[in-house]
Amino acid sequence: MEEKTLKRFTTAKFLSFALGFFGLQFAWQMRIILSGPVTEDLGASPFLFGLIWLAGPFTGMVVQPLIGVLSDKTKSPFGRRRPYLMGGALLSAIALWALPNSEIITNTIGAYLHLHLPELSALFFAAIMIWILDACVNIAQGPYRALIPDVVPQEQHSLANSYISLAIGLGSVVAAGTAPFLKWAFGYQMSINAQFIMAALAFALGMAWTCSVIKEPKYEHKEEVRGEKFSIIKSLKEFFALSPEVGKICWMQFFSWIGTMCMMMYFTQYCVHTVFSVPDLSDVSEFVKASYDQAVLAGTNFSSTCFALYNLVCFLVAIPIGVLSVKYGNRKVHVLSLLSMAVAFAFMGFVTNVKMVAFLMALSGIGWASICALPFAMLSQYIKPGTEGSVMGIFNIFIAGPQVFVCTLVSWFINKHAFPVLEGINYHWEYTFVIGAICLTLAAIIASRVKDKTVGEG
Question: Do the beta carbons of residue 368 and residue 341 sit within 8 Å?
Fold first, then answer.
């Protein structure tokens, strides 16, 4: 099949390309920050919220591979990928609006149908909205990654993925920092509803801009073989047949994401209970809870500050990592980035000084910027034309799978390691960082064995 030369992207075009992912990350970060308070207000226990949180990895393992294959085979005037990008963004925007209004919506439905709905109906509705939101984010995310080899020249793939890392870092910082900044600068406290609406607009408008500016090439589809059916097993076999290096990249990504999720899921608990020495408050009197209100608030605020630093560093180093990877190779840059994150996590397993923890979180942002970019650039070297969506969808299994592992086994491990304190018990939340450091080190070792493929190599 005749290959068509793709035009090199300018800085302005890279920024337009990344804007949609900025909106996607904005929405995802808002879901992470605010879905807990919304569901807790509706009566969700921590365990039930954990089950709801599994929406992300489960939909990632199921939705992205399926949507990836479908996007490879899609024929429309709008393109192969853009229908999924825009469709996912619009459905996510609806879910973002509905989630904080779950109680109002269910009460309205009950009144209209003259039904007395149970108290948990609002929580059930909110859970459905979270699952829809997570599914739609995955609908957009896989084809978005697959769009890179569709429209960007191969020698710029690392840079394109670095711009996505930049969008992830900036989207997270803006999403987390807008409401606190408005409160600090103008004394205005945004409501939860307003923040969800802001996320919905960011996702929909950002994706609309990217879809309008980035034009997909016209594809010459081969005549389809009659009776050919979609098979995930066939797609998996073809995926791992791409190159022996693909398996290494998948295992590298698997351990990278175990380490990363150990931090993302449990860092706030680590700040509150380990750094600020607040005991477990799930089974204590209201008097004891009240006595720790200020410490809990201080720990939570410190966690937010650290996350802002983490994502700010990701934003600042995203493009330099892409430039360095072009000069020195994806493998070398990624190994060093993963090791910097592993070192940061290892120290967090043993220190509780707030300044040191903040510095270590900032340092780990280097690894996060690399994880968001270079594994995809490494994999894209082995993708056959016409299979980009299915490959990226299957690759997402090695991102979503580790999240299930962390949600279940790591949580169980921490739950088994309680220790007595003056007013009850506490848990060794710092163990999550020890586990994370070990897994990131394993990922770096595997990454060091991945061969960089030169441009033009068969």
Answer: yes
**Identical fold between 9-215 and 232-453:** yes
Q: What is the pLDDT of residues 315-324, one digit of tens each?
A: 889 889 988 9
pTM over 0.90: no
Which pLDDT belongs to residue 3?
A: 46
- Long-range pairs for 34-37: beta carbons < 8 A, 24 or more residues apart: 34/100, 34/192, 34/195, 34/196, 35/99, 35/130, 37/192
| Tokens (6 digits) for 94 | 């609806």
Lowest-pLDDT choice from 204-208, 273-277, 390-394, 418-422? 390-394
What per-residue string of b and e applies to 200-226 under the rule 16 or more CB within 10 Å gives b?
A: bbbbbebbbbbbeebeeeebeeeeeee
Domain ranges of the chain: 9-215, 232-453
- Superfamily the domain 232-453 falls into: MFS general substrate transporter like domains (1.20.1250.20)
Residue 229: both structure tokens together: 């059916």
- Note the CATH number of domain 9-215: 1.20.1250.20
